[in-house]
Hints:
By secondary structure, this protein is an alpha/beta fold. The protein has helices spanning 6-12, 18-23, 64-75, 106-112, 125-131, 133-138, 152-159, 191-201, 215-222, 225-242, 247-268, 272-279, 285-295; strands spanning 80-83, 100-101, 115-118, 142-145, 164-169, 179-185, 205-209. It contains 13 helices and 7 strands.
Amino acid sequence: LSSTCLPDIWKACAPVSAARAGRLAGVTPAPTRISRSGPAASTSRRSREAPAGALAACPLVRMVPRFSALAASSAAKGSLQTSKARCRVQTTGRPAAFAAARAAAPEEILRESRFVFLGVKPQMLDGVVQSLSAPVAASESVFVSMLAGVQLERLERTLGADKKIIRILPNTPCAVGQGVVLYCANARVTDDDLAAFCALMADAGIVDPVPEHLIDAGCAITGCGPAFAYMFIEALADGGVKCGLPRAKAIRYAAQMLAGSAEMVLHSGKHPELLKDEVCSPGGSTIAGVDALEQR
């Protein structure tokens, strides 16, 4: 785009409109900076870890329960789902041993599965477990909970203190293998269990352990973040359309730019601020746009 179009794009990228702000319940997060410490280890990709207290008081955390409930309900429509070593269902690009399928009955899931995924609404947990009390008590499966806001302590009280339990918070980009699955586990889960779980989930994207007291703060980034990224893509595309680009091209350009920029952060090892500075040439259009955004 020519430099004459940039002011319109910067305006389009300004903070959300009053209508959108209403949908976000008036939440306006304070600016934060990512730690400059080295990349933290993760299961499948390099990632950066924010300082322990950076998001502890972040107002975005208040949005986590709504997102997590949505993710849980969309990721698993039935009361219980399972991944079974004997499953014959073929999934493109995944080994048959790790393919997923629904069993005929919850009792079969609890009897024959190594991992049982709990994908119900949090308020439904007690009723589901009570209706299957005998099979749950007899099960030797590892229970994997996607329930929003339900901590390991409550899961142990509900399922049984002797149960192996992993708590996860996935995000919607897991559907295309570019997501983040945050997890923590109780003391009964073995290293072998965790290794098998991480191998099972690896195709979803990054599978990363996090202390339970930080899991909601992490989900404020990984779980809520996609919605904010989509709004940024939409704003860039709106600016491009205003300057004459066809809508489809503008959206494609914006989405690919964001994907490429994310890969630069993940693979270069450089801090985002340094990468930003590398794009900004002296007196150029990019630094003019950065200035316009910072003034808002």
